[in-house]
Design brief:
Length: about 290
């Protein structure tokens, strides 16, 4: 990737949770330990159903004042996330709203992306942290050493295709949810425990008993695998993975490789068939790679 590449993040939005009860409210709802997240801290987090299925996935940012939180989520999920969380506020002193912030993604192994970020917020955030300056703030998500998200009034500039940003997320093992995949998988199937988005020490949250039972009884039979698919029709989140004609899993993310027209993907696949021949719905062969350590 070019040193100065700036990537248009494909559709993220900022949901802000604020008020004197914001920390306690989010601590009781999310999978991550909100109470231990310091001001300026960033972590991947999720909100689950009572059955333990992930309904929303997002970057959780504790803002510099310590009292506000940003949930940076796929734009298509943001309004539903706001409505859902508001339904649990009850008497808590909490406000939940989607802001008008635009989101720009910047990536590069050299100084280009860092210059882009520092030019907007003054400094480059350390990994897993956020920096604020006026109406803008920038986050450097954990697990993305040379990738940034800048939130503010400016729309994303013309740059690389959405596929390039998707492939960066896929390389990091992150599969955002859509209407076709929401409320379909427990956190461990999406590797949220490995990605630091799931705490087993923080206490209760929706679905906690089901999620903990899976951990301690070792009943997880489907897991997240990276893979490749040859050129052809674009695979979509929710498309089935087949093993000898039978359903064996689900594609949860895909990004086109401009070099050969093929697709890098993430799929949740049954462990018992992961080493065998797999195909998408139209018969193209899916080649899985070993799971991330």
């Amino acid at each position: 990737m070019a040193d100065s590449t700036v990537l248009h993040n494909p559709g993220m939005a900022n949901v802000e949770v604020r008020g004197s009860g914001a920390e306690g409210f989010l601590q009781a709802q999310l999978t991550s330990d909100v109470a231990t997240l310091a001001p300026g801290g960033v972590t991947l987090s999720a909100w689950c159903t009572p059955r333990g299925q992930v309904r929303n996935l997002f970057w959780l940012v504790r803002r510099a004042d310590g009292a506000r939180f940003s949930l940076v989520a796929p734009a298509g999920e943001a309004d539903g996330l706001v409505r859902g969380l508001r339904g649990f506020v009850l008497r808590a002193k909490v406000e939940v709203e989607r802001t008008g912030d635009e989101v720009v993604g910047a990536a590069g192994s050299g100084s280009g992306s860092e210059a882009f970020v520092s030019g907007r917020v003054g400094v480059v955030p350390a990994p897993g942290s956020a920096v604020e300056s006026g109406v803008r703030f920038a986050i450097r998500p954990p697990g993305f050493p040379d990738r940034f998200l800048v939130l503010g009034p400016e729309p994303p500039p013309a740059g690389a295709s959405d596929d390039e940003w998707r492939r960066l997320e896929i390389a990091a093992g992150i599969a955002w949810l859509t209407d076709k995949t929401r409320e379909s998988f427990i956190p461990q199937m999406l590797d949220l425990d490995r990605l630091g988005a799931l705490s087993f020490e923080k206490g209760c949250f929706p679905g906690q008993e089901v999620i903990a039972r899976t951990r301690y009884l070792g009943r997880l039979k489907r897991r997240l695998y990276p893979g490749r698919l040859p050129a052809g029709e674009r695979p979509m989140p929710g498309d089935p993975v087949r093993s000898e004609g039978r359903s064996a899993g689900t594609i949860v993310a895909a990004g086109r490789d401009a070099a050969d027209g093929g697709y890098e993907l993430l799929a949740i696949v049954a462990d018992e068939v992961a080493d065998g021949p797999l195909a998408c719905e139209d018969g193209r062969r899916i080649s899985l790679s070993p799971r991330r350590a």
